[in-house]
């Protein structure tokens, strides 16, 4: 089976130059807001080191903290479920919903449920599931996946949202004012919140010592959904654990500053026990995570707190859009998570990077993202998933660069060839993808080696 | 046959690396002044109002929210009685909730609102407008100090609230009043 490459999907995104530039500039603006917030905290680099060490420690004793969390949650009256994969997770959710005889489900933002494709599963079983985060609702109405971790509808313009709301919510045609569009969504979703029978949320942090789950939002949709519905189901990946409540001091200081440049999210909500007469469930999901834990070169990717800073800073993501990655988590972090799930399908993602390292620089938990991208490239090459041109090109260049003589001769040929051969041949875009958007520099008359040999000895 | 739980725990045990140390989290100190809190809260869309005297609460609320018809509060005799059993359709009509908060965090304008102060879990987000009442001596500098104030844990349900509900999901344009409170005032005495 063949898959579309990242490059070909990016090409489709780039057809709209104006939108590509807007996307690029808007996300860079978010990166700048992040910088401003970060520079205002003198101990920010220490916080990054702490966060990284806390996550590393947690991963090194994951079995212990999972068991500790489970015991504490059970003691709090929370029902704990375990799911090995997406299918098991979705079946558990459906079972909880059905046991209540419920059909109306409100969901706050959860990348895990996106990863599990929960919505289509519930809908196919007759459950009405409504995404309540504004961006998520917009893309749900448009039947699109999110294109960013924290800005799910960043690929859309207000005109697109206006059209979608006109079609689905009956707003006036041509309405594009974000304030008015948000108000329309508020009214529409209020009715859904008030009627909600089961509330689904993701989990930002799970605290082993207290058995609490913590959800961070700006809109208040998680709290509104959970506190009105009789049943709360929180879905978490096993990597969401942190040992102590005090560790949240570190992570809440890092998360929103890294994500959007806010000092903290509007709501940082701690769910520990269900309200009287109500139910709270936590589903602990593996879905490939223990496998990633077993890869020494890549396990650090499990430290991710899903802030999206690596996307906002990535020159490739900003100019190719989240959908070009064709994976739940796009951008640099998605490119090191996805090969663990399906190496062949996602084999072009680790190449969707300049390896500039900016992702690593901004990561609040110090994941060595660009190093992992480089390591995945080697694994993909060894597994023979490189396109033929890249594979043979690399083999050829490897030989050439290993031999001083071959390098000398081919350098001479190239310098002469570039001068004499027609541009259409040297920059042939079919044979040389590199030349699609680039010009080679003017070839010098001689190489450094030739020049050096001409110099008189000192 | 082993359960999914046991298989996940066994896989974690088999694949996790050698144990690394859990670092202690330092208190980095910082500015816990009301000025800082006020400035940061203003930057995220909230407002601080100084109460002339603790007894001036009801009158100040009346002055700040003259249009609020249905008001819920445990602090003065409000127009609407809310408790944990209040049905959803009553909650849906609340114009204003005036709730006491335990402490504020100067670095980010957040306040700690435990379940015991909410009347109903949904009240802080279902109300159209929100006013918090804060003792000016109850301010900490950072989130480290904030969590140190919760030695018995966060309780059944508790939240840090920093400013009014907001979103920027449409073209990154900031809109105040997404799903939760449309405005937030912290009344400081």
Question: What does this protein structure show overall?
Answer:
The complex is a heterodimer of chains A (458) and B (189). With 458 residues, chain A is of the alpha/beta class. Chain A has three domains: 41-287, NagB/RpiA/CoA transferase-like (Rossmann fold), CATH 3.40.50; 301-382, no CATH class; 391-454, no CATH class. In chain A, 52% of the residues lie in helices and 10% in strands. Chain A is built from 22 helices and ten strands. Chain A has a six-stranded parallel β-sheet with strand order 1-10-7-4-2-3, with helices on both faces. A four-stranded mixed β-sheet of chain A has the order 8-5-6-9, sandwiched between helices. In chain A, strand 5 (205-207) and strand 6 form a beta hairpin. In chain A, helix 3 crosses helix 12 (247-259) and helix 16 (331-341) runs parallel beside helix 18. Chain A is globular. The mean pLDDT of chain A is 96. Chain B is of the alpha/beta class and 189 residues long. Chain B has one domain (30-188): Rossmann fold (3-Layer(aba) Sandwich). Helix content of chain B is 23%, strand content 22%. In chain B, the strands form three sheets. Chain B has a five-stranded parallel β-sheet with strand order 1-11-6-3-2. Chain B has a four-stranded mixed β-sheet with strand order 7-4-5-8. Chain B is globular, with a radius of gyration of 20 Å. Chain B starts with a helix and ends with a strand. The model of chain B has no long low-confidence stretch (mean pLDDT 96). The chains are: A alpha/beta (458), B alpha/beta (189). At the A-B interface, helix 2, helix 3, helix 4, helix 8 and helix 10 of A face helix 1, helix 4, helix 5, helix 6 and strand 8 of B. Strand 9 (267-271) of chain A pairs antiparallel with strand 8 (157-161) of chain B, so a sheet runs across the interface.
